[in-house]
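Standup notes, structure subgroup. Blocker cleared on the coenzyme A input:
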Amino acid sequence: MGKKALYAGSFDPLTNGHLDLIYRAANLCDELVVGVIGNPQKIPYFSIEERKWLIEQEIKDMQNINVVTFSGLLADYVNNNGFDIVVRGLRATMDFEYEIQMAQMNARLYKKNVETIFLMTNPNYSFISSSMIKEVFSLNGDVSGLVPETVLNHMILRKQGVK
Ligand code: COA
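Run returned:
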């Protein structure tokens, strides 16, 4: 049976760093599910459905990637949907402590052996986060090249009050 992997995050919005990770993770497994999840600690910019749609626009040509939305515990979603692998990205050492804590807590909650695989973020994007993109963009800074074009266009429409 093929290996099924989950890459979950807020993706608010999707960045080129996320996208690079999505492509690379998809090459490592048979099926990759990108899970868009609300993070109660973060004020949403795009709705969960908008974020899902924006990711779908970028992965249209990839046969083995699906985008879903879910809520609640990541470990519950993993248990209920038969995942073998959870993929996470590491941008810098500062990510490591938070990530290991989360991976170890989740590991206690998985009902079968699920491996958390960490991929090093592409150095071209290791300094960005969705919040930084939003902040720079809101102050009229240039974020082109850091987010997919469709995402940037949607951010422009949002700023113009069209979306
Ligand atoms: N390139 C660019 N940016 C990246 C990146 C990459 N490769 N990888 C991460 N980032 C950014 C993200 O956009 C995010 O930016 P933001 O904080 O400005 O929004 C930041 O780095 C942190 O990313 P991440 O740790 O993936 O946060 P997240 O909110 O996207 O995802 C969840 C965290 C949703 C996976 C986690 O909160 C979760 O599992 N929630 C479910 C509830 C649960 O099970 N809780 C118990 C956990 S033990």
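Discussed briefly. Residues 4-159 form a domain with the Rossmann fold fold (CATH 3.40.50.620).
Next: hand off to the docking folks.
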